[in-house]
Amino acid sequence: MNVFDELMGQLMATAERFGHREHVHLTWLAVRRCGTAGAVELISDGIQKTARYAGVPQKYNATVSRAWVELTAYHMTEAPDEDFEELVRRNPGLLDKRLLTRFYSSRALASPAARTGWVEPDIKAFPFTLPQGQGV
Length: 136
Description:
The protein is an all-alpha fold. It is 57% helix and 0% strand.
């Protein structure tokens, strides 16, 4: 079993469905297990494969997947030892699936470039600085 499937199994053992909250929780689990860069790869690959398997590969968006991992990881660094419930209690914006619209226009997120790779926010920069050349 690969790490993505393992984390999904762990998450879904107590969840009734896979909605936005579960997506953020999966991201939290992945960052804890693999670090930010590893979680970007793990979540992106896992969601892309899941979308293909479900027959909706067009639903995968590389920028959206990576942005959620980066935002979640950023807030995790503020209190590294807290559990998921504490993280979302302290950062309720993570449970708002429209959070990315504070940083991106819908046009930018719907672009072919965003679907296949990284696109920088076009409304407002993320609240953290990344190492040069890494993007979010």
